[in-house]
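Cont'd.
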Amino acid sequence: MIRLIAVLSLILIGGSSFAHQFTPTYPRFSSSFIEGVVVTEMRLFNRRDDVEYYQVSVFDSEWNPIEFATENKIVRIGYLQTKPIHVYVNKKIVRKVVYICTESKLMKTGGVAPVVSSRICSKVKS
Amino acid sequence: MSMLNIRNFIILGVVSATSWATAANEVQISGNVASKCTIYTSTNGIYGNPTADVLSTATADGGTPAVIRYDVVNAGTYKAVITTPVSFSTSPSLNDTLAWTGSAAVSEVTDASMSAYDSSKRVFDNVTEFDLTIAGTVWFGAESKVEYGYGKSLPGGSYKAVVTAECIAL
């Protein structure tokens, strides 16, 4: 009974919680309108009303950063909004790309500062 | 039968036939289950101050551990990585060493076999990794403790530190 109450409490707490979602899990690059550059479209969903900014980053298999281009590397996204993120990579180095990540950026000052930063990484499978 | 009646009879027949055809149509409901991971911040942690030189999120020390919920749609597609803090993001000026300890563990599960996550987790430095091998929801609790100097009193003020919860595709 106590366990049931605990689970229900957590579900209720979960209902009012903050979520971060980044899809697809396994993106694929395709040709872009720029010659020699490939692109993939990711989708970021923000259900954290305490977070307004997310940072986009791209890494290789050893978590070394890889050069890429996107509309904004720091994405401003409102609460309950979904935003497409286009990640452009030079075709010559696209084989190195393994992880595409978004990380919540927390405000250091103002209001009640959150203490949990979230990061979700999708994997490019070759 | 007058011309008017014949016309009404034909119209009625056409309407009936159309209605029957519509009723026979199949209505499809389509959906797509895509792999994804969602991180929820269920509870932001709170530091308790059991002694002058210690801040701790342990319940026994008057604190509240951070609770992070992970939802995964497909089994075996993600790992959870929880990093406990090794520095304050906000604090008064500190001039002595800080000794940090932290841990992450399964707090609640929606599938009994998820309890095995604790026995198969990997811990290094201040990082704990869990392979999310079962689809569904799991809650992880993250605890953090810091001791200041050698029994030195922490200066008064506001202290904040950041737990990082990651979901990495496998």
